[in-house]
Amino acid sequence: MSVPLWAWFAVLGVIVAMLAVDLVAHRKAHVIGVREAAAWSVVWVLSGITFGIVVWNSWGAEFGQQYFAGYVIEKSLAVDNVFVWAIIFAAFAVPREYQHRVLFLGVLGALVFRGIFIAAGAALIENFSWILYVFAAFLILTGIQMIRTRNEHVHPEKSRTLKLFRRFVPMTDAYHGQRFLVRKAGVLLATPLLAVLVLVEVTDIIFAVDSIPAIFAVTSEPFLVFTANAFAILGLRAMYFLLADLIHRFRYLKIGLAFVLVWVGVKMALLDVVKIPTLVSLAVVAAIIAIAITASLVATRGQGRREIEVESAGAFRTATEEEMAELEPVFRSRRALAGSRR
């Protein structure tokens, strides 16, 4: 697959433009409802499908199928990521109107980190072809482990990341709007929102360790791996606000995702023995996810939306107007710093 340099820049330009539109549309903190989340989800999904059609028409059916297979895999695995975000937000009692800002920066960081991982993975595959078997074994073992631990839950309050953050970064116990840093009495402090952002970023890095090898099972083209990841990730914020209160209804989804990892791992392991057509791989992944979701919804029929209940990571509150008025500028000029020292 020959991809000109301008195509890379064009894709990056489209991604930046879409992020800019999203940022402008949500520049004011507000609670994102189900209807708004559904509308944005449609926008992001249509964007991903439209790009897939462009790939299909520009580079042929095989590469188009590889893109869609990668997109479906990444979108499916991302659902588990969304549920972990919901647990983190619940543990920190993050007000709903502040959640979009955290997820926006989280997605931005995810794009950067996944770009690095994809470049590293492509380099490893190009120089060490046997690494594919390592990826395959890792995916199969991860899938089996996911099935074994399907009933276990994430505990943000016990996270090593949170413990390290609290140890080295002084933090307030109150949310100060959408601020990540505040200054009080000359001391720079992190707000709980920054701790949440760090956990969201670390979580995505952990999930990328699974998803990046998984997509390399259906395509080895860095352009398709990156774009499938990018368009799947761009819609995660809307997906979160759409599904966060429905975690309890996706009872069998984790098992389905585990089978997806095992399937793509087996496909990768048999690469030199039998070449499974991309369309077949796409159909299998779609069928596994469809069965898992259908079985979950049938088993939880009649259950409505409800907020997730988790153990609190601390006693967090919203700062009062008096506390907000006492804040000092986070970034001060050298003259102001010199004056304060006198």
Q: Could you outline the blueprint of secondary structure elements for this entry?
A:
Blueprint (H helix, E strand, L loop, with lengths): L4 H21 L8 H26 L1 H31 L4 H32 L3 H18 L11 H9 L5 E2 L5 E4 L2 E4 L1 H25 L5 H13 L1 H8 L9 H17 L8 H22 L17 E2 L2 H5 L8 H8 L1
Parallel strand pairs: 1-4
Antiparallel strand pairs: 2-3
Helix pairs in contact: 1-8, 2-3, 2-8, 2-9, 3-7, 3-8, 3-9, 3-10, 3-11, 4-7, 4-8, 5-7, 5-10, 6-7, 7-10, 10-11
Query: How does the major sheet shape up?
Result: 2 strands, parallel
Q: Tell me the series of helices and strands, N- to C-terminal.
A: HHHHHHEEEHHHHHEHH
The main sheet orders its strands as 1-4
Shape type: globular
Work out the radius of gyration: 22 Å
Q: In percent, how much strand structure appears in the residues?
A: under 5%
Distance between the termini: 65 Å
Outline the structure in words:
The chain is mainly alpha-helical and 342 residues long. 69% of the residues lie in helices and 4% in strands. It has 13 helices and 4 strands. Mean pLDDT is 83; it is low at 334-338.
